[in-house]
């Protein structure tokens, strides 16, 4: 028997899902890197290991494509929830899951979309980033994981995030940072591109969209509000409240199979 896997995505932020209810898989950094590699592995932005702890709700063990561990992944939660519901491990409707950033209340809707209570989005300062020769000012936002969310009038479609890696201030972000570039399309309508810590550019980042809306509101002197966020992989909706935030968007499972045991054992 090989290792069971599924492949899924949330607005094209894609994940390998590894069901591991009893926590038996030895998910090393090297295995994560191999799984996420788009040539020698299945290819993904990250891995979601599905674990059932002795106490408490199903736990999402999230890993970035480079093998690093992150506290939270908003798109990952939606895909994780879709997996639990499709397997009959959780009901359509409301329940709670565990993440490294704490427990998250979710709603699995009948139409396949998922709403995630993302917890508070906390502004903890301002900073800037350099991309190539251009500099962007932004707001530092903690959504369980760190973000630098930069609202800019430079069309985000024109940015070269493939050849350029955002340079950031390590004294503000000692553990690295996810960097968002945001255009305001209208009241309550944003467009975003993102360079994720531990991955590179992705086609969507759920926590990043929450940071983006928080940054836009902050810039307009508001603490609460809502917006849709267009990302290269689709669109999500974000609501920012005083004490918490929610993210709603699609979640897709597209394949399942078995990893060859010899391939797994090679790492
Ligand atoms: N794509 C995720 C965020 C994943 C973690 C991030 N790369 C980090 O290191 O903090 C999302 O949808 O939120």
From TrEMBL:
One of its GO terms (cellular component) is cytosol. It is found in: Cytoplasm. Pathway: Amino-acid biosynthesis; L-lysine biosynthesis via DAP pathway; DL-2,6-diaminopimelate from LL-2,6-diaminopimelate: step 1/1. One of its GO terms (biological process) is lysine biosynthetic process via diaminopimelate. GO terms for molecular function: diaminopimelate epimerase activity. Pfam families: DAP_epimerase. Its main location: cytoplasm. Coiled coil: none annotated. The active site is at residues 73, 205. The keyword Zinc-finger does not apply. Keywords: Amino-acid biosynthesis, Cytoplasm, Isomerase, Lysine biosynthesis. The record marks 147, 196 as: Could be important to modulate the pK values of the two catalytic cysteine residues. Substrate binds at residues 13, 64, 74-75, 145, 178, 196-197, 206-207. It comes from the Bacteria. InterPro entries: DAP_epimerase_AS, DAP_epimerase_DapF. It catalyses: (2S,6S)-2,6-diaminopimelate = meso-2,6-diaminopimelate. Its EC number is 5.1.1.7. Belongs to the diaminopimelate epimerase family. Catalyzes the stereoinversion of LL-2,6-diaminopimelate (L,L-DAP) to meso-diaminopimelate (meso-DAP), a precursor of L-lysine and an essential component of the bacterial peptidoglycan. Homodimer. This is Diaminopimelate epimerase. The lineage of its organism: Bacteria, Bacillati, Actinomycetota, Actinomycetes, Pseudonocardiales. The gene is dapF.
